[in-house]
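Raw record, unedited: RNA signal recognition particle
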Amino acid sequence: MAYVDGFVVAVPKQNLKAYEDMARLAGTVWKEHGALTYVECVGDDVPYGELTSFPRSVQAKDDEVVVFSWITYPSRQERDAINAKVMADPRLKDSMNSAPFDAKRMIYGGFKTLMEM
């Protein structure tokens, strides 16, 4: 089954177009290097919970929107190889250094697929 990298970030609403442009380039690069899918989703129904929630997890401010994204790979081994190629790809160097969001509040991780239907 596929291996998944997942991400949650808070993006200032005024930077959403810049984020989309950066994500479009990143998605192209990841796919060219072998990722199966690259998906970016903008929060539409993500209430601020009392204890936990997507907005709380990234300390989203009133002028920010939560973005939830994931990338799938054939396996963990292929994910590691693909990510090494992506990180070395010169097309992403500038966009990663000038990301339109606060990368310190990004949540990310790699996940083994438990089940898929």
